[in-house]
Each structure stands twice: as C-alpha cells, then as structure tokens.
Specification:
globular, mainly alpha
Length: 174
C-alpha cells in the first residue's frame, strides 16, 4: 500500500509537470525502514537484528547527506538506491543462511520465504539499474531506456506476484 500511495503521488506530480524525484528520495528512506522491519521479525540472529537497528538510523542520515552534497534531490538517487539494494540483498542472504543452518526438518514458512525471494529478485535485478540511472537518463537512446524500464517493471511485477503468493500462503498457514 505504501508503494502504491507513493506511485500515485509521483504520477500526479509528473502529470502536472512537477519533478517527482524528491518523492523518490523520501520513498527510498521509508522503503528500507519498512523492509528492515520485516527482516527484524524474520531473522533471529542477534548481530543481524542489531545491524538492522543501526542501519535504520544511519541510512536516513546517509540519504540526507547524499542529496545535500552529491545527488540533488531533483535527480535520481542512484547512490542511495544502489546502497539500499545491497543492504536488502545482504539481509536476504542472512535469512537464507539461517534457514540452511537450521535443522533439516525445520523449514520456515513458505510465505516468508516467498517474500524474501521477491525482495531478492527485485533488488538484485534492479541493482545496476539503480546504480546507473542518472547515466541512463542522459546518455541512452529512448528505445533502450524503454527496454530498461520494462525490465524494471517486470522485476516489480515478479516481486509483487511473489508477495501475493506469500499472503495467500500466510492466510493458509493460520
């Protein structure tokens, strides 16, 4: 729902000719905080949980420093989006390591695993897109930009499809 609200706001701004990049900067901060909240629930390792707590406070500071000093709030926040992707990929790997390290007969819920797979597919698949978005915006021909954005949209669709399956399995687990 959060992403949907942000997308509506960004679309309305763009439709009215207003730069919507400040919304993306805010979205990046809030998205990571929400995803880290999810991981703080599903990951049991104390070091990981403490890391999550620290990142929740340090990442917004990093984002603010980024748009003040490096990437204007009116351009794509490629540094913070790429760093966010790395953080989420790492926590996906921590989750899977915990699953693999648990006894062979203990499998965590399918719903959680599907959600983590969704995060992993989207953020690993979008990492280079996030990293090079400012270059893509200015240096790449329109046709190639559309291919890149269609790939991104496909990754988003896959992630949300996996989230939908996760909710279906979660409901069935009750």
């Amino acid at each position: 729902m959060f992403a949907g609200v942000i997308n509506v706001i960004a679309s309305v701004l763009a439709f009215n000719g207003i730069n919507n990049m400040p919304v993306l900067h805010l979205y990046t901060i809030l998205e990571l905080v929400l995803v880290l909240r999810f991981f703080s629930i599903v990951i049991t390792g104390k070091k990981a949980v403490w890391s999550i707590y620290g990142i929740k406070w340090l990442f917004p500071v990093f984002c603010i420093i980024n748009f003040i000093c490096f990437e204007s709030v009116f351009m794509f926040n490629s540094y913070t989006r790429a760093f966010e992707a790395i953080i989420i990929i790492i926590f996906c790997m921590i989750y899977f390591k915990e699953v693999l390290d648990s006894s062979p007969n203990v499998f965590r819920s399918y719903s959680v695993t599907l959600a983590v797979v969704g995060f992993l597919i989207y953020f690993s698949g979008s990492f280079f897109h996030f990293t090079f978005s400012n270059y893509i915006s200015y240096l790449v021909k329109y046709e190639l930009k559309m291919i890149i954005w269609n790939i991104h949209a496909t990754l988003v669709l896959i992630m949300y499809s996996l989230f939908t399956l996760a909710f279906i399995y979660a409901k069935a687990d009750r």
